[in-house]
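Thread amino acids onto this structure.
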């Protein structure tokens, strides 16, 4: 959402409206085009990213542009420096619109029902209330930097090596997806699995402790009532 506000503030759009529809019922063209990609790749086995990109690019409806590390910029730092946090308001409201020429206010309401009134939220932080396009561009040039690329997720690296590599044709074993994890990665994953096991065990213990306490209270109460009725 903040990215859309930034685009509007830069003068690309004068009015932006956000409407979150029910999940699974968006029927947008983009959703249908994603499904059209299945026509080719579902017919074959793909073992590398290069194979996947070439196969998807055969679709007549979709053009594939391969991403590189420098495509991912730190928009969080940029937008957090300009706009206020909207998490508390956005969580309970589902209709938003920005019509203000300078993009400093957003109209928010929970629904179209009469009882859900419309109200305004000031978007930009105090310093940026009157900033123009030139100031925003200068600020973006200094803040908007590429996000450091750290490679594959360590847990995914172990999974690809242990579970997938044995089933992949030998000619693809040298691909980066199936490289053997370093000792540091193995160690990190091992520690994480231990921590997760302990966390799940503690969570399970708390869950059943609460259940046993409720059952004990309920059954003790029933037994007490039965005893009183017997005496009567």
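Threaded sequence (232 positions):
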């Amino acid at each position: 959402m903040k990215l859309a506000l930034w685009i509007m503030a830069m003068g690309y759009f004068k009015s932006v409206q956000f409407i979150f529809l029910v999940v699974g019922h968006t029927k947008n063209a983009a959703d249908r085009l994603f499904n059209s990609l299945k026509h080719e790749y579902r017919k074959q086995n793909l073992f590398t990213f290069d194979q996947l990109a070439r196969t998807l690019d055969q679709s007549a409806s979709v053009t594939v542009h391969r991403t590189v590390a420098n495509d991912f910029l730190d928009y969080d730092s940029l937008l957090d420096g300009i706009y206020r946090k909207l998490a508390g308001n956005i969580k309970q409201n589902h209709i938003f619109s920005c019509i203000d020429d300078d993009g400093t206010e957003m109209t928010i309401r929970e629904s179209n029902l009469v009882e859900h009134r419309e109200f305004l939220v000031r978007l930009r932080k105090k310093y940026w209330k009157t900033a123009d396009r030139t100031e925003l561009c200068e600020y973006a040039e200094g803040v908007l930097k590429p996000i450091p690329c750290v490679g594959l997720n360590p847990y995914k690296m172990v999974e690809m090596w242990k579970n997938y590599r044995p089933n992949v044709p030998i000619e693809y074993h040298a691909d980066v997806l199936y490289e053997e994890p370093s000792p540091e990665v193995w160690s990190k994953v091992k520690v994480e699995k231990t921590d997760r096991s302990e966390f799940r065990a503690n969570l399970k213990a708390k869950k059943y402790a609460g259940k046993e306490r409720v059952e004990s209270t309920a059954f003790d109460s029933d037994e007490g009532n039965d005893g009183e009725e017997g005496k009567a």
